[in-house]
Structures are given as C-alpha cells and as structure tokens.
Amino acid sequence: ALLSPQHKPLAGKRAIVTSGPTHEPIDPVRYIANRSSGKQGHAIAAALARLGAEVTLVSGPVTIADPRGVTVRHVETAEEMRAAVLSCLPADIAVMVAAVADWRVVGTAGQKIKKQPGEPPAPLVLTENPDILKTIGHHEQRPTLVIGFAAETENVEANGRKKLAAKGADLIVANDVSPDTGIMGGDRNRVRLISHGGIEDWPELGKDAVAERLAALIAERLNQGKS
Ligand code: CTP
Ligand code: CA
C-alpha cells in the first residue's frame, strides 16, 4: 500500500532544490556569506523525494548530512550554484531555498591577505551575484512550479509580494527572520505563503513539518494545474 501511486503523487516529476548559504571568497581563507543552516532546504528536498519526485539538491556549504533519496550537488559560490541549477533543466519543480550571497568580491586574492600592523586592508570591491530564482522564473525552460523563499526582517508581506512579481515565481514562502523571532538557525519555522491567489499563514511548525506541508501543496498544485 505504501508504494501505491496515491502515496507517490510526484512520481515521474523532476525537482531542483537549492539550500544553504553560498560562500564568496575574499582570499583562500576568508569569505562572505549569509547565515543559513540548510535545514529547511534539505528537509524540502527529502519531503519531495518521499512523494516520489526525482530530486536534485544543489547545496552550498552546510554542516548537516545529505538527505536520503536525493541527488546532491555540493557547490560553494552563487555562480557555481547557478550553473548547477541550470544544468538540471528541464524540471517540473524548482524550490529555491538557498540564502545566496547577493554580492561577490571583485579581484579575489590568490594568496592570504596578510595583516599589516596598524594598516587596514584595502576596502573590498563587490559586484552583484546572478539571481538564480529570477533566472529560473523567466527561463525558456521554466519549470511548471517555481517557488522562492523570502527571508525578511520587516514588511514581510509587502517585500514578499514584490519578490513574487520580480522573480516570476508562482509562490513565495516568506518568513520573518528578525533576531527576536529566534527562527534563524533553529529547527522551527513560521511561514507565510504568498501567491497570486492570496496569502496563507501557517502556524509555527518544525522545519520538517513545513517541508512536508509544502511538498503536499506542490503535489496538489501540479496535479490539478496552477491556481
Ligand atoms: N535568490 C537567488 N539568487 C540570488 C538571490 C536570491 O536564487 N542571487 C533567491 C533565494 O534563494 C530566495 C529568493 O531569491 O528564494 C529571495 O531571496 P532574498 O535574499 O530574500 O531576496 P533578494 O531578491 O536577494 O532581495 P534582498 O536580499 O535585498 O531582500
Ligand atoms: Ca538576498
């Protein structure tokens, strides 16, 4: 009974999930990164696989284990993540959970930058990284369902709506990551789903439960057409 199609509603569907941070090198020993444990993205990849999807997880550097039943591509930088994601097209589902660094360093040093006593180093010059979600949302091989996350510290709904439109996504999973929520790095999450059809607030749940509900919603939408 466990293997009946009813329990594998995503059988035959291909999914791409990004997770974790990216690391943008300054020199061989230093980098710029966002805070991200990878827990939510990894849980989503695993939940999609449990529903029968063929999942590739493109993960930045994390300390957690690779999830079961999923193909994992390990990358460091946003540019590597973008290339890995594009190489997975065509796909039916894209869930971009990674906390991609918005900028990378121009002129990365080939050798460790040495401390000169009393003299600060030259300021870092930054350039914008490619927006992977936006690329996928507007791609000619756009997956049927494109889902992004939005980590916000304020104006969660307004910022989430802007991202939905700008990135060509079907759904934005927004969460408030301001320090007083205690969400960042933990095992729980409280999300607000923003789609063209409206807004849905989910209660605070474990990240595995959020993943399970999101995977179920993805299966429902894919099997009945978008709404
Ligand atoms: N994202 C991405 N590539 C980037 C930046 C973001 O794929 N270079 C994706 C994230 O994985 C997430 C969504 O875009 O699904 C929103 O990321 P977020 O950092 O919240 O939004 P930004 O567009 O980068 O805007 P800002 O950081 O200024 O809020
Ligand atoms: Ca960002």
TrEMBL record:
Binds 1 FMN per subunit. One of its GO terms (molecular function) is phosphopantothenoylcysteine decarboxylase activity. Residues 10-220 form the DNA/pantothenate metabolism flavoprotein C-terminal domain. Its EC number is 4.1.1.36, 6.3.2.5. CTP binds at D102, K112, P130, D131, I132, L133, F149, K163, K167. GO terms for cellular component: phosphopantothenoylcysteine decarboxylase complex. Pathway: Cofactor biosynthesis; coenzyme A biosynthesis; CoA from (R)-pantothenate: step 3/5; Cofactor biosynthesis; coenzyme A biosynthesis; CoA from (R)-pantothenate: step 2/5. It catalyses: (R)-4'-phosphopantothenate + L-cysteine + CTP = N-[(R)-4-phosphopantothenoyl]-L-cysteine + CMP + diphosphate + H(+); N-[(R)-4-phosphopantothenoyl]-L-cysteine + H(+) = (R)-4'-phosphopantetheine + CO2. One of its GO terms (biological process) is coenzyme A biosynthetic process. Its cofactor is FMN; Mg(2+). Keywords: Decarboxylase, Flavoprotein, FMN, Ligase, Lyase, Magnesium, Metal-binding, Multifunctional enzyme. Residues 15-227 are annotated as: Phosphopantothenate--cysteine ligase. Catalyzes two steps in the biosynthesis of coenzyme A. In the first step cysteine is conjugated to 4'-phosphopantothenate to form 4-phosphopantothenoylcysteine, in the latter compound is decarboxylated to form 4'-phosphopantotheine. In the N-terminal section; belongs to the HFCD (homo-oligomeric flavin containing Cys decarboxylase) superfamily. This is Coenzyme A biosynthesis bifunctional protein CoaBC. It comes from Rhizobium straminoryzae. The lineage of its organism: Bacteria, Pseudomonadati, Pseudomonadota, Alphaproteobacteria, Hyphomicrobiales. The gene is coaBC. The chain holds residues 179 to 405 of 406 of the full protein.
